[in-house]
């Protein structure tokens, strides 16, 4: 059953010969995605629909998300057990709320998708051109939350821009209609959504956060220490399933999008396939991951990211990388590199 209101409830199925597991032995897991059902989210849905979680003894209910900044809030409040989201809003929450026990046991995207996107007609070519301009974004958008880090790295005042708060569905239309000069978001969302609204690719101007030195890790599995400590095998099972589905999607993106379309009938197959390929090629399977597999996190780089968030928000309290990332739940290395 699919509920189409505030959240889409996507119930796990034992598709593709999942082993016989009695329902009463399954652990219920409430899982939130970071965004709407688009190409990159298709890889997470694939793990659900191919029964990878169920094989691990998990009955996963997976809902669409409303931004990476929203995910840690809802997990902290107990609405969900786990989720996938850009890691940096969670880092910010941990810095601002030392009592929080949020962390990630698994980083999925080795490169950040956060960017400023605008249209050529706006004559914004460099970060300095943003001064005095209006940016549209949901408050929960990771790019908006981390804009101070982008601004600091780019050498501009983060208070020199104006913000218009919009729902996720209105972000790109606001730019197209000329009601905003630029938007923040993920390249996997913004670029393709603008193209879907009829904007030629050559008219889209993109400034990646990594281009100015804000080289963050990105989408990660988020949960609490409390839940992970109580359910360590479940955390490892989730990671194993997510890894399998990422490699499945790399080998056969068409199958991933076909599965997504079964969930979302209005899926633009060509556009979402391209969106998924971008996520896989530029964010997930970077040169580092292709050489080493998942789970080989560059800890000094992660620490630099934490410090960049801390400095951007003028937070004096330091936080070691071990507070936010714990690899002890990872499955064996053979399950983290499947090609």
Automatic annotation (TrEMBL):
InterPro entries: NMT1/THI5 (IPR027939), SsuA/THI5 (IPR015168). Keywords: Iron, Metal-binding, Pyridoxal phosphate, Signal, Thiamine biosynthesis, Transferase. Gene3D superfamilies: Periplasmic binding protein-like II. Homodimer. PANTHER family: 4-AMINO-5-HYDROXYMETHYL-2-METHYLPYRIMIDINE PHOSPHATE SYNTHASE THI11-RELATED (PTHR31528:SF1). The lineage of its organism: Bacteria, Pseudomonadati, Pseudomonadota, Alphaproteobacteria, Acetobacterales. Responsible for the formation of the pyrimidine heterocycle in the thiamine biosynthesis pathway. Catalyzes the formation of hydroxymethylpyrimidine phosphate (HMP-P) from histidine and pyridoxal phosphate (PLP). The protein uses PLP and the active site histidine to form HMP-P, generating an inactive enzyme. The enzyme can only undergo a single turnover, which suggests it is a suicide enzyme. GO terms for molecular function: metal ion binding; transferase activity. Pathway: Cofactor biosynthesis; thiamine diphosphate biosynthesis. This is Thiamine pyrimidine synthase. Belongs to the NMT1/THI5 family. Residues 44-254 form the SsuA/THI5-like domain. One of its GO terms (biological process) is thiamine biosynthetic process. Residues 1-23 form the signal peptide. It catalyses: N(6)-(pyridoxal phosphate)-L-lysyl-[4-amino-5-hydroxymethyl-2-methylpyrimidine phosphate synthase] + L-histidyl-[4-amino-5-hydroxymethyl-2-methylpyrimidine phosphate synthase] + 2 Fe(3+) + 4 H2O = L-lysyl-[4-amino-5-hydroxymethyl-2-methylpyrimidine phosphate synthase] + (2S)-2-amino-5-hydroxy-4-oxopentanoyl-[4-amino-5-hydroxymethyl-2-methylpyrimidine phosphate synthase] + 4-amino-2-methyl-5-(phosphooxymethyl)pyrimidine + 3-oxopropanoate + 2 Fe(2+) + 2 H(+).
């Amino acid at each position: 059953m699919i509920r189409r209101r505030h959240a889409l409830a996507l119930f796990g199925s034992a598709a593709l010969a999942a082993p016989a597991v009695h329902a009463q032995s399954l652990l219920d897991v409430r899982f939130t995605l970071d965004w709407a059902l688009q190409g990159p989210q298709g890889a997470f849905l694939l793990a659900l629909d191919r029964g990878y979680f169920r094989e691990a003894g998990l009955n996963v209910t997976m809902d669409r998300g409303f931004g990476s900044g929203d995910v840690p809030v809802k997990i902290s409040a107990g609405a969900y057990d786990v989720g996938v989201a850009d890691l940096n809003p969670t880092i910010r929450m941990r810095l601002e709320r030392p009592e929080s026990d949020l962390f990630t046991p698994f980083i999925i995207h080795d490169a950040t998708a956060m960017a400023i996107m605008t249209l050529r007609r706006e004559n914004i070519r460099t970060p300095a051109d943003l001064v005095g301009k209006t940016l549209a974004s949901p408050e929960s958008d990771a790019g908006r939350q981390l804009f101070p880090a982008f601004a600091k790295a780019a050498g501009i005042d983060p208070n020199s821009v104006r913000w218009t708060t919009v729902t996720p569905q209105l972000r790109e239309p606001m730019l197209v209609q000329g009601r905003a000069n630029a938007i923040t978001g993920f390249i996997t969302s913004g670029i393709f959504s603008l193209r879907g609204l009829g904007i030629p690719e050559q008219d889209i101007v993109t400034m990646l956060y990594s281009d100015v030195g804000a080289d963050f890790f990105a989408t990660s599995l988020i949960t609490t220490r409390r839940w992970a400590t109580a359910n360590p095998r479940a955390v490892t099972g989730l990671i194993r399933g997510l890894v399998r589905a990422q490699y499945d999607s790399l080998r056969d993106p068409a199958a991933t999008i076909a599965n997504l379309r079964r969930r979302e009938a209005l899926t633009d197959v060509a556009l979402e396939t391209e969106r998924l390929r971008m996520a896989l090629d530029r964010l997930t399977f970077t040169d580092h991951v292709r050489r080493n597999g998942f789970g080989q996190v560059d800890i000094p780089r992660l620490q630099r990211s934490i410090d960049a968030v801390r400095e951007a928000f003028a937070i004096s309290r330091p936080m070691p990388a071990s507070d936010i990332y714990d690899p002890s739940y990872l499955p064996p290395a053979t399950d983290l590199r499947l090609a």
